[in-house]
Amino acid sequence: MGEFEGIVEGHRDGHGFVLREGGEPSIYLAPQEMRSVLHRDRVQVRILRYDRKGRPEGRVLDILERRKTPIIGRLLHEGGQWIVAPEDRRFGQDILIPKNATASAAVGQVVSVELTEPPSLHSRPVGRVAEVLGEIDDPGMEIEIAVRKYEVPHRFSPETLAQAAALPEKLRQTDRRHRVDLTDVPLVTIDGEDARDFDDAVYCEPHVPPRKGRGKAPAPDGWRLIVAIADVSHYVKPGEPLDEDAYERATSVYFPRRVIPMLPEKLSNGLCSLNPEVDRLAMVCDMVVDAEGELTAYQFYPAVICSHARFTYTEVAAILANTRGPEAVRRAELVPHLVHLHEVYRALLKQRSRRGAVDFETTETQIVCDDNGRIEKIVPRTRNDAHRLIEEAMLAANVCAAEFIAQAEHPSLYRVHEGPTPEKRIALQAYLKALGLGLHISDEPAPGEFQAIAQATQDRVDATQIHTMLLRSMQQAIYTAINSGHFGLAYPAYTHFTSPIRRYPDLLVHRVIKALIGGRRYHLTPSEKTRTPELRRGGKPAARTMKPASQEIAWWEAAGVHCSVNERRADDASRDVEAWLKCRYMREHLGEEYSGTVSAATSFGLFVTLDALYVEGLVHITELGGEYYRFDEARQELRGERTGVRYAVGTRVRVQVMRVDLDGRRIDFRMVREGEGERLLERGRNAGTRAPAGSATEELANVRETDRAAKVAARAAKSSRSRKPAPRKTQPRPRR
Fold first, then answer.
1. pLDDT in tens, 56-103
2. Which of 102, 255, 550, 691 could make an S-S bridge to 695, C-beta 3.0–4.6 Å?
3. Which residue segments constitute the domains of the chain, with CATH numbers given?
């Protein structure tokens, strides 16, 4: 039925899938087939059959490439054998460790393992301990695990560190040549309280058109908005170690209490950071915005700037709310410029509305940790006018950058966000129809249609549900050399220019703009370390010949794919750490009841977000009550066949925390009536006996046994106690 190549993706239940390129359906691998392969191996498979839903099932014919990156897990000693239980359940098999390959690791510690023998149908994989990370409860261990689990580069090469160390501590006179001196312009940075690198500074003043003749000076007709961005390209040159490491990372990765930067700290927090009261190099986008929020003119130029102040969003919001308050008094000389920034923001906001840009208000959360890296609380991250004015200023600069490059017809990376696919559009239309909404989505929908639906439904009780479905119908934004516009922002061309300290695409855009300003062209040339598709295998370009222009476009497209993939990797690693922290946090709240809101409905249950804690968990369909529930895909809801009760996104519920699977990053809830969980617990305490099988009390008494992380810890403790005091060399060798 056909043979295909692809990447194996394991599943925690033992089976797996082969992910094919080009968006083709994944091929199912039975648990027996998974015994000889590991998660992330590249294989050749043959399709054997199709199931009743037309999904392919395959057999592994050949293993084309074994994964070479280390596997993270807990070291255990069981039955005379040393093994490592992988932290990532998708690997599915424990790894045997010869007794002379455990390094200095102790039972229960988290280690990094390199495979020395791959698995087969009749034997488990064998490896050696390459690195001892520490104890599972060590502060920050969840981050150490995540960066290795997702293969996030977290160590700079010696060459990169040496090059960074050789950079000057401050600007030299040669650095200032051929630059506009803006040090007297009161540019300021506005960021969060915990920000350490400042890559953008802003300034705004009324724009007065030139005087014509000898008449009186004309009145202002808009604003001059200056966005100054750190000139990283001055220090990070193509092909040098700094550049190759930055490309490999492609982005900074943000965790609670820790950042893995794209650039060494000397650059990210020093030379390239627009710290207050020090001269810094910048690339400037100097714009004129009229009273209606239209960009009527702009220019780019390299400059030397000096940030006059480091503001926080909270401080600016307070000043804008009361220009005579204590915060404003402390910054009196800068308050007029902040007021002008707020004025241009409101004009740009009007233009955003006219464009029909999609704007959903969503609740973002912030994890507050203690000194040991454990969650103290989870709080909503509120967005005020200071956040929004910086966002609109950055959007304006990014649009100017995209237009400047597009008009020059120069290859570059665009930030592209396409509209919904036909399948998603049809599903969304069916959903809106099922709700009885007389709102139509055209065959080629415009962003304004989505925004109109959001505004028309914002006062409904199910507004959150509708807005969630609108968001889910859209495609993910990517970096690509082919400009297809940005659907969500309603821009014909859009790119990223404003964060070169933490995003590699922005650095590439800076190089292109700088080349165009100088009347040159920037040619993207790959190296072995930049790993474009032509170089990924064997280190040599593909044999096929291409015209220089199309070959360069292929390299740009490869860079876009690389940056997009690593952006997803950074997001996945960050979410993994947050999920681990939330699971660890919720283990302290087992059995407690909370009010929450259904955030998603599926055929197997409901995902519920707790009001007070902003933590999401699953209510499995078997925990909904004693009747059969049917999933309505059009309405995205579960409906009870006997009672007709409905659970949809936005439904208010009361749940009890039942289980926490730390290793699987999963929290299970149980639907309860008001106070039911507390009554059952109290009854069990008063009786002083074991609760009836299947009751909430018994579930809570045994809940830790369902937590795999607790199981691994128990295995570690058991194996530690059962170890004989004899020297390790007398222990039997593990079977292979």
1. 999 999 999 998 888 999 999 988 899 999 988 889 899 999 999 999
2. 691
3. 3-65 (2.40.50.140), 71-135 (2.40.50.700), 158-168+176-356+387-402 (no CATH), 590-719 (2.40.50.140)
Task: Say how far apart CA 587 and CA 706 lie, in whole Å.
Answer: 12
pLDDT for 625 equals 78
Cβ proximity of 626 and 671 under 8 Å: no
Q: Which two tokens stand for residue 462?
A: 């199910």
Question: Helix 548-586 and helix 241-249: axis angle, to 10°?
Answer: 60
Helices 463-472, 447-456: inter-axial angle, 10-degree rounding: 170
- Strand-pair category, 593-602 with 605-610: antiparallel
Q: How far is CA 69 from CA 121, 124, 130, 441, in A?
A: 22, 18, 11, 46
The least confident of 237-246, 566-575, 715-724 is 715-724
User: What's the token pair of residue 673?
Assistant: 């009536």
Displacement of CA 57 from its chain's centroid (Å): 31
pLDDT at 528 (0 to 100): 64
Q: Which residue has the tokens 């400059």?
A: 303
**How many Å apart are CA 32 and CA 147, to the nearest integer?**
30
CA 592 to each of CA 44, 151, 195, 511, 703: distance values in angstroms, whole numbers, following the listed order: 49, 36, 35, 55, 13
Range in 315-319, 439-443, 693-697 with the lowest mean pLDDT: 693-697
Please give the DSSP secondary-structure letter assigned to residue 417: B
Q: Which of 263, 72, 84 is nearest to 151 (CA)?
A: 72
Question: Can you read off the two tokens belonging to residue 360?
Answer: 């959903």
Distance (Å, whole) CA 418 – CA 308: 39
CB-based contacts of 644, cutoff 8 Å, min separation 6: none
pLDDT in tens, 550-594: 888 989 999 999 999 999 999 999 999 999 999 999 999 999 999
DSSP 56-118: EEEEEEEEEE---S-EEEEEEEETTEEEEEESSGGG-S-EEE-GGG-TT--TT-EEEEEEEE-
For 295, residues 6+ apart whose C-beta sits below 8 A from its C-beta are 287, 288, 289, 396, 399, 400
The CA distance from 55 to 125, in Å, is 30
Q: Rounded distance, CA 562 to CA 682, Å?
A: 56
Confidence of residue 699 (pLDDT cuts 50, 70, 90): very low
Across the range 696-708, mean pLDDT stands at: 41
Is the CA virtual torsion 252, 254, 259, 265 positive or negative?
Answer: positive
pLDDT band at 23 (very low <50, low <70, confident <90, very high): low
Mean pLDDT of 140-150: 92
Going by C-beta distance under 8 Å and a sequence separation of 6 or more, which residues neighbour residue 494?
398, 399, 402, 414, 415, 416, 417, 485, 486
Output the average pLDDT for the chain: 86
Predicted structure pTM score: 0.85
DSSP SS3 for 220: coil
